[in-house]
Each structure stands twice: as C-alpha cells, then as structure tokens.
Amino acid sequence: MTKTALITGASRGLGLALARSLTVDGWRLILTARGEEALRSAAGGLGALALAGDVADPAHRDRLIRAVEDHGGLDLLVNNASGLGTVPLPPLSHYPLGELEELLRTNVLAPLALIQAALPGLRERRGAIVNVTSDAAVEAYEGWGGYGATKAALEQLSNVLAAEEPDVAVWWVDPGEMNTAMLAEAVGEQEAATASPPEKVVPTLRRLVAERPPSGRVSHS
User: Fold this and answer.
1) Residue 12's domain spans which residues?
2) Domain count, the chain
3) 147 catalytic, yes or no?
4) Which residues contact 52 (CB under 8 A, 6 or more apart)?
5) Which residue intervals of the chain are DSSP H helices?
6) Coiled coil where (predicted)?
7) Would you report the helix, strand and coil content of the chain in percent, each value rounded to 5?
C-alpha cells in the first residue's frame, strides 16, 4: 500500500528536503506552504500535490484534510511550517503582544488543529506525527523568547498527545541550527551560512519513520 505524507512548510528548507527523500521511496505527498510559486516549483519536480496557503487559516486546513481523504488516508503528518515572529528579535520586555499572539496561532494552534483533524485517519493506519521544534524551546537565548515559547508549547502538546494516543507515534524533533531562510532572517546570512544544511537532518527523520521508536523528543546532532 502506498503511504501518504502531509508536510507543511514544504516549499524550502527541511520540509522540501524531507519531501525529496520520501519521494525516492515512493511516498505519495501532499505539500503546503504560503508561497504558491515556490511551492508549485518544489512540488512539480516531485509529482506531489501542492496546496498553497497558510496553515493558520482554518479554511486552508480544511482543504488539506479533504485532500488527505481523497488520497485514502494519512500515514505521516509533518508539522514543519513555522513563523519567526518579530525581527530584529526583541527582548521579552518589549515583545509586541499582538505579534506574539499571531506567532502562537502559526506555531502552536495551527499544528494542533491539523493534528485534531488528521487523528482519526492516523489512528486507523497507525500513522505518525512529526512536530518540528527547536532548542530555543529548552534553552534561554536572548531575543528568542517569543519564538522559543511557542516551540516549548508545541513540545508539551506533543508530549501529552503521545501519552493520549498510544496507536499513533508522536515525535517532536529539534533539528538543531540549520542554514535556512528563517535563520538568515534572524541572525544574518553570513552567520546562517555556517550552519548545517537541512538535508543533514533528513536521515534522522527517515530513521524515525522506518524504525518507529517510542514517541518522544528527538534531537538531531
């Protein structure tokens, strides 16, 4: 039986790198990201279904779930899409609360909403969920308080979900510092260029899917 994966934030970075790798093994892919042109370009070379939109938008999430149902179910949900928040990264004493609220919608509520919608099918197929988090969820980096707080919330949601859903594997994965557009936006292109490419993280994710270890936090190193 062909397996199906839904990957958010799939037009670049880790999401695209994982999609390329899964395609080699014959996975059917549903890819989403906000940038329609970049997503179409990425998905076109993979034979994947591309549905551009914002995962924080309930109507777009509904479209994604309908696509999953049209494909007969879901084996893997990868919540990779993420916002950075206010740039330059501000201290918490000056963090705009409205922007933090928006970041929580993207980084916490949207992944949970997708999980809730996908869970019946994932339970049926004994599927898996990968929530991409960050070391900023557990370390105190100046300026990263807003982003880190959202990732800490996502990690705890994952932790509890793993306890509540024994038939679904739930991994929350800290990929480490990667050379991505998001990191470059936060620290500058020169510093970001010293980080590892996202492709280096893909074997860690593939190992989870292939070996299905117990649910838990996974750090790529």
Assistant:
1) 4-216
2) 1
3) yes
4) 32, 33, 34, 35, 36, 39, 40
5) 13-24, 36-44, 58-70, 97-104, 110-124, 145-164, 181-187, 189-192, 202-211
6) none
7) 50, 15, 35
Residue 153 sits in a domain whose CATH number is 3.40.50.720
Catalytic residue among 27, 95, 144, 147: 147
Q: Is 221 domain-assigned?
A: no
Query: What sign results for the dihedral spanned by CA atoms 42, 29, 181, 55?
Result: positive
- Flag whether 208 is in a domain: yes
> Is 28 among the domain residues?
yes
pLDDT in 10s for each residue of the chain, 221 residues: 789 999 999 999 999 999 999 999 999 999 999 999 999 998 888 999 999 999 999 999 999 999 999 999 999 999 999 999 999 999 999 999 999 999 999 999 999 999 999 999 999 999 999 999 999 999 999 999 999 999 999 999 999 999 999 999 999 999 999 999 899 999 999 998 999 999 999 999 999 999 999 999 999 96
Supply the angle between the helices 110-124 and 58-70 in degrees, to the nearest 10: 20
Q: Of 140, 169, 138, whose CA–CA distance to 155 is shortest?
A: 138
CB 192 within 8 A of CB 23: no
* 101, amino acid identity: E
The answer as to whether 142 is a domain residue is yes
